Amino acid sequence: MIMSFLSIDIFNQIINREIPADIVFETETMIAFRDINPKANVHILIVPKQALKTAKDVHNDNLSLFGELFFVAKQVAEMEGINGYKLHMNVDESGGQVIPRVHLHLLSPDFECDL
Ligand code: 5GP
Fold first, then answer.
1. Which domain holds residue 48?
2. Residue 115, in any domain of the structure
3. Residue minimizing CA distance to atom 16 of ligand 1
4. pLDDT digits (tens, 9 = 90+) for 40-52
5. Which of 8, 17, 33, 45 to mutate to test the pocket of ligand 1 (most atoms within 8 A of CB)?
6. How many helices (H) and strands (E) would you count in the chain?
């Protein structure tokens, strides 16, 4: 089923503290907070503060930002005490993305989706 993008970038509202979230990690460029509807014991969303809609917005000039996503995932996983983990990203509406803002899902191994 193709999900539609929400019209509002909720994650930008979380970054701007306009709506609450359980924020677990933050830097100048990244924020990480718990998913409101967790699919695993640990389910954290890692979001670049730069307003990029989908991973298709990756370009030569922002490659490091995408590398940083993986670096933050490693740091947050260590903080959460999970050794192995799953990283998942939905890309664009037809790829199942709902929130129109690049985000990486960090999931503990009990997540049972067969990708
Ligand atoms: P997507 O399908 O876009 O990759 O994933 C969006 C994720 O954002 C979903 O797992 C959903 O549960 C989560 N989510 C949606 N709205 C909110 C919210 O207001 N706060 C938080 N913390 N997570 C949200």
1. 10-107
2. no
3. 36
4. 999 999 999 999 9
5. 45
6. 2, 5
